[in-house]
Amino acid sequence: MTNWIFLIVGGLFEALFALSLEKISTTTGKTALLWFFSFLASVAISMFMLFKAISGENGIAVGTGYAVWGGIGAVCTVLAGILFLGESTAFWRIFFLCTLVVSIIGLNLVGEH
């Protein structure tokens, strides 16, 4: 269970580093520098959490772990873009976001089979 917590936290920080990149490109001066440091910290934390999730005796399989980590990051990044950056809520965009969530759940259900 602990490995899944590491993976979820890592996925959330993956979304933060993606959003930090966007903020770096749309700000200047000290604000951009703060977002740059946010990017560096969130990349380090995200990668460390992914490492913790897939390592050890009860580590999550690397393929599953990486897919879930990336999926969590992608879903959270899209949702943050919609909620905070005014990105599109077009039907097909939401539809494919939902298929991504279903795929992540499917990977967890089939496990190591």
Q: What brief labels describe this structure?
A:
transport; membrane; cell membrane; Small_multidrug_res; 0% strand; mainly alpha; 84% helix; 113 residues
How would you sum up this structure, described in words?
- The chain crosses the membrane at residues 34-54, 66-85, 91-110.
- It is a single chain.
- This protein is mainly α.
- The chain is 84% helix and 0% strand.
- The protein has four helices and no strands.
- Helix 1 (2-26) runs antiparallel to helix 2 and helix 3 (62-85) packs antiparallel against helix 4.
- The mean pLDDT is 93.
List the helices and strands and how they pair.
Elements lengths: L1 H25 L2 H26 L7 H24 L5 H20 L3
Helix pairs in contact: 1-2, 1-3, 3-4
From the alpha carbons, calculate the radius of gyration and give it in angstroms.
Answer: 15 Å
Shape: flat
Tell me the major beta sheet: none
Number of domains: 1
Which class best fits the helix and strand makeup? mainly alpha
- End-to-end span in angstroms? 19 Å
Count of individual beta strands: 0
Helix percent reads over 70%
Q: In sequence order, what are the helices and strands, one letter per element? A: HHHH
User: Helix tally?
Assistant: 4
Quick structural gist:
Its main location: membrane. 84% of the residues lie in helices and 0% in strands.
